[in-house]
Design goal:
By secondary structure, the protein is an all-alpha fold. It contains 14 helices and no strands. 76% of the residues lie in helices and 0% in strands.
């Protein structure tokens, strides 16, 4: 893989992971528009780990608070507020874990084949879902839902006021992001806005909720990393570092942007991009 391809992948991931416009969809479409070969799952995980480190760096204070909550949950220290939020993050992660294992173990293959007419081959359901027209439809549908949530959603809740019910609902929404074109940040922000959280608070919880999900994806690929060639490991490392830089800058921009503007620009982008993809493909 050339340096230009690694740079494009890193910049696209760093920007789209935190903007509610679908990072996985854009990563898949890189090969469609540039002619590059698909970068493969290891590079996908590398860029997500770079994004994860950017989240930890940007929200370091919140991450340390959640760590205190985790320790308090096992009797080390007392931090009731942080402990509650820690468990809401854990609770919100469970739906994505269940959905992810259901996909990986093939439990949903027959359902998808009979209802949606997709042929699930030997590569599994996730490979079958990496098709351009599905990405386009998801960009449009979930973009419209984001617009509705942002327009009609109240802004009377803060991150610290979250309940177990809200954490579970946002977590269930996150599980949908396993389908390309949905956008993990977009669908979780949509759920949080419908629940009455402000834009800044919705983005804050969305990013913190992504930490265990992305970390888990990184752990699953460790066996592949141990067997990978040194050249591929170097490519993954370089791409991950560049992703970290792009992701941190994008996150800083988005969090400041959401303090003074709506999400409508992202809604319009998603709908426009989805329509273009449907027209050409």
């Amino acid at each position: 893989m050339t340096f230009i391809q690694m740079l494009i992948i890193a910049v696209v991931q760093g920007i789209t992971e935190f903007l509610p416009i679908s990072s996985s969809g854009h990563l898949i479409l890189i090969s469609v528009f540039t002619g590059f070969e698909d970068q493969g799952p290891m590079i996908d995980i590398a860029v997500h780990v770079g994004s994860l480190l950017a989240i930890i760096a940007y929200f370091f204070k919140d991450v340390m608070g959640l760590a205190r909550g985790g320790f308090a949950s096992v009797g080390i220290g007392t931090a009731p507020a942080e402990r509650r939020l820690f468990w809401w993050i854990v609770l919100g992660t469970i739906p994505a874990v269940i959905f992810g294992f259901a996909i990986k173990l093939g439990f949903l293959d027959a359902f998808v084949e009979s209802v949606f007419g997709l042929q699930v081959g030997t590569e599994g359901l996730m490979d079958a879902l990496r098709i351009t027209d599905l990405i386009a439809v998801n960009l449009i549908v979930y973009g419209i839902l984001l617009g509705l949530a942002d327009h009609f959603g109240k802004e009377d809740k803060t991150f610290e006021q979250m309940t177990w019910r809200d954490g579970l609902i946002v977590g269930a929404a996150q599980a949908l992001a396993l389908i390309p074109g949905t956008s993990r940040s977009g669908v979780t922000m949509t759920a949080a806005r419908f629940l009455g959280y402000g834009r800044f608070e919705a983005a804050r919880f969305s990013f913190l909720l992504s930490i265990p999900a992305v970390a888990g994806a990184g752990v699953l690929i460790i066996p592949d990393l141990l067997e990978a060639e040194s050249a591929l490991l170097i490519e993954a490392l370089i791409t991950g570092v560049m992703t970290f830089v792009a992701a941190f800058a994008t996150m800083a921009f988005l969090m400041n942007f959401l303090k003074r503007a709506s999400m409508m620009v992202f809604v319009l982008y998603r709908v426009a991009m989805g329509c273009v993809l449907l027209y050409f493909f």
